[in-house]
Amino acid sequence: MLISDMSVDILRTAILFALAATLSAFLWAPLLIKFLYKYKIQRHPEYDATLAMGARRTKYGVPIMGGLLIIITIIVITLLFNWERKFTWMPIAVMTLAALLGGLDDVMNNLIGKKRRIRKIKHVLKLIRVHKDWKQRLWLTLTLPWTFFKRTSLWLGSHPGKGLHVHERLIMQFLAGGIAAWWIYFKLGEHWRQIHIPFDGFLNIGWLIIPLIIFFVMFTANAVNFADGMDGLAGGALIITFAVLTLLSWMYGYNSMAYLNATATGALIAYTYFNIKPARFQMGDVGSLGMGALLAINTIVINQMLLLPFLAFIFYVEILSVIIQIGGRYLLGRRIFKMAPLHHHFELRGWSEEKTVMRFWILHAAFVILGLWIALY
């Protein structure tokens, strides 16, 4: 069956959005690079142990927050040419909220933050027993579950440094996921209260869609964040994913979402050009958290939630390697990988950065194509 002229026009328009985003991002990228270098917004070695690893020493001094190139380009083009009350405003809002969280962490870690500590559980228990002020003892007792949450959440992150602690990031990510879930459940209608099961049709799960949306938004945002550790890795993989999301959105008739995904693809092309080794800047939390949240919400809006393990394949592999490493450390008393996330494991095994990044791209592309094939049924 031939594609209708209207469908071809929509696809052409999506391609124009991608080209416009690419050109726009290329045009203002030098201004961003100059700004980042001028104010020395860079990752500090005392809070990033990987900068002491062999060839990674050359990354010291490379600015972070290059993800602003992607985020701002997407926001401006969408506001000007693709603003739609039903669909595009909420993905942009969730992306912006996640990016603000990442940007706050980047700024605190590198510019204005102060080093903070979280008391150890055994220290708190001792204070509960020996503190002279009974009111303070009572307060420490009542807040013990909160202290336990803060301490255990550190398992999921690296050295907290001067930025946001893991529990603070998780709470704010939960808020972003909760806003997205509220919008989808209460505003989009009955169709979005069901999930598409490949090869089987749709299953209405009612309110259970809410925790699923929150989980996928949080999990995917953090997954992309963990993958942003090698020049070009996250950017190149995201180009593949958002290009396929553009195609899927077009196929299922979500025209504004196709334009949004195409815009993201174009902005990522320009970003990755400057991020290829030797990188002019790195994505930073502002970009990785923002794009991870956008990836999740855009996939959910076109009702393909269960395709996320394919569309975000390499990102999920990266975060699962961190979870496995944590489990090995605390349950088995040993490391499973030489270092997590997984790209550092191969780096320590002697793979060059270019070899690791390109093989991860290829592996990711294969699973994204598999996801596209599944979506056709």
Main attributes?
single chain; 377 residues; mainly alpha
Question: Class by helix and strand content?
Answer: mainly alpha
- Note the run of SSEs as H and E: HHHHHHHEEHHHHHHHH
| Poorly predicted parts | none
Strand content: under 5%
How many helices? The count is 15
Strand count, sense and barrel status of the largest sheet are: 2 strands, antiparallel
C-alpha-based Rg, rounded: 22 Å
Q: Approximately how much helix is present in the residues?
A: 55-70%
How many strands in all?
2
The residue-averaged pLDDT reads 88
Through-space gap between termini: 17 Å
Using the alpha-carbon principal axes, give the shape.
globular
Query: Strand order within the widest sheet?
Result: 1-2
Structural summary, described in words:
This protein has 377 residues and is mostly helical. It has a domain at 5-116 and 160-306. Helix content is 67%, strand content 2%. The protein contains 15 helices and 2 strands. The chain has helices spanning 5-38, 68-81, 89-112, 121-130, 134-142, 144-153, 166-187, 209-227, 233-251, 255-275, 284-301, 308-311, 313-332, 342-348, 353-375; strands at 194-197, 201-204. Strands 1-2 form a two-stranded antiparallel sheet. A hairpin with a 3-residue loop joins strand 1 (194-197) and strand 2 (201-204). The chain is globular. The two termini are 17 Å apart. 44% of the residues are buried. The model has no long low-confidence stretch (mean pLDDT 88).
